[in-house]
TrEMBL record:
Sequence ranges assigned to domain CinA C-terminal in this UniProt record: 2-149
Name this protein carries in UniProt: CinA C-terminal domain-containing protein
Family annotation (NCBIfam families): PncC_domain
Length: 161
C-alpha cells in the first residue's frame, strides 16, 4: 500500500512530510524505502515527547495544556506546522495513545491522524484495539488510506506540472 501511495505522490508531483508521535517514525521509514521517493519526500519529525511538540514542532503550549497531546486539535497543529517546516504540499501527523496505559485520561487505542493537503486540513479520529504494535500498524494503514483518498479527491484540482 505504501508503494501505491509513493507512486501517486511522485506522479502528481506532490511533496510530503510527516510529524509523528506514537508511530515513532514508522511512516517515515516505510515511505522512505520506495525507489524515487526522494523526488517528493521532504522528511519527518518524531515528536514523541510533549516538549518536542512544543519546542521543535512549535505547537502553542496553551493548546497542549488545554486539549492534551492526544487530541484532534494537536493532530491538526502537528500537520500544519510540519507542512510549514518542510515546505511540503502535504503533511501527515499521527498522535494518540498506543498503550499500555491510559494517558491524559484518554484510553489506549485513541488516535488522531491529521492531513494538511495544500490549504485544507482533515483530522481523523479512531479507536483502535490490540497490542501497541497492532495499534501502530492499523494507524499507519489508516493514514495511507486517508492520504490516498485525499490525493484522489484533490488531484484533479491540484496544479500538476
Amino acid at each position: 500500500m505504501m508503494k501505491e501511495l509513493a507512486k501517486m505522490l511522485i506522479d502528481a508531483h506532490l511533496s510530503i512530510s510527516s510529524v509523528e508521535s506514537f508511530t515513532v517514525g514508522h511512516f517515515a521509514s516505510r515511505i522512505g524505502m520506495n525507489p524515487g521517493i526522494s523526488k517528493v519526500y521532504r522528511g519527518s519529525i518524531v515528536s514523541y515527547q510533549t516538549m518536542i511538540k512544543h519546542k521543535v514542532v512549535g505547537i502553542d503550549q496553551d493548546l497542549i495544556d488545554k486539549y492534551g497531546v492526544v487530541s484532534s486539535q494537536i493532530a491538526k497543529e502537528m500537520c500544519l506546522h510540519g507542512q510549514k517546516i518542510f515546505d511540503s504540499d502535504i503533511c501527515i501527523s499521527f498522535t494518540g495513545n498506543a498503550g499500555p496505559d491510559a494517558m491524559e485520561g484518554k484510553p489506549v487505542g485513541l488516535i488522531y491522524i491529521g492531513i494538511a493537503y495544500l490549504d485544507h486540513v482533515s483530522v481523523f479520529e479512531y479507536r483502535l484495539s490490540g497490542k501497541r504494535e497492532d495499534i501502530v500498524e492499523k494507524a499507519l494503514q489508516l493514514g495511507i488510506d486517508n492520504l490516498k483518498n485525499e490525493i484522489k479527491k484533490n488531484t484533479s484540482s491540484a496544479c500538476i506540472e
